[in-house]
Design goal:
Blueprint: H1 2-31, E1 46-47, E2 54-58, E3 63-65, E4 69-70, E5 77-81, E6 86-90, E7 93-94, E8 101-104, E9 113-116, E10 125-131, E11 137-146, E12 154-156, E13 161-165, E14 170-176, E15 183-187, E16 190-191, E17 201-207, E18 212-218, E19 227-233, E20 239-246, H2 265-275, H3 278-289
Parallel strand pairs: 2-11, 13-20
Antiparallel strand pairs: 1-4, 3-9, 5-6, 5-10, 6-7, 8-9, 10-11, 12-14, 14-18, 15-16, 15-19, 17-18, 19-20
Helix pairs in contact: 2-3
Amino acid sequence: MSQENHSERPRVATIIIISCLYHLQHLRTIWGLPASNGAIVLDRPYFDDVSSSNVTAVVDEVAILKCRVRNRANRTISWMRKRDLHILTSNSFTYTSDQRFSVDHPVNSDDWNLKINFAQRRDSGIYECQVNTEPKINMAFHLEVTDLLAAARAKILGSAEVHVKKGSTISLACSVNVHAPSIAWLHDSAVVDFDSARGGISLETEKTDVGTTSRLMLTRAALRDSGNYTCQPAGAVSASVVVHVLNGEHPAAMQTSNARPCPSTALVLIGALLLAPPYHAARLLLSLTQ
């Protein structure tokens, strides 16, 4: 009998090991732990942290807290105001009588951004983006709403719209009136990837006595490089510039000058001859024929 039990031990040990491995993988899936090969198990929702958790806005302007949730499936995304534990939104629905609050969720995107129109100083505080997993996961954002003159903010150097020819270099610069710990550049809603296959992208950041200056350069401009570029300093108000990459000459429809075209030289001479006394008109004609 003891020999039979002894022979059963390897089989029992194998079953125990397989069971342990199964439960370990199950826990990895639930908790989002790294797999044995170092990869992250993506069977559950997770936050794609692409923006700063410290957001500064100006009184009476729009404040946006950006929350990107990957692998959402059928989970519910909610925004909660921490100071009173008030649920502001759930998915695309708003659960507050304050109509300034809404969710900005582009169709088929992973972005569930909390938008506050006409932000006020009382809106300052901590907000949480939550996903109803088990256990629940959340990401906290600290919003500070400040007066315009006191705001730490970025400013685009040069025009708010830039027109460049295809194949040339796009050069953008912004200055921040504080020493920003980091500055990100966004093309439309995506962070500019300096390691992308496109190549030819460089960033130069310079600390000055009064703040920080950031310069973004993109060589060999293509039509796909057109769009909105945002200079986003950590803890400061962002600034944006619109870039138009043109396939040819600058189109007349996009010119912004209000100046009227100058009349031709011939029209000027004709007007002068008609308005001048006969004697002076004769002398003018004589000088032109010499």
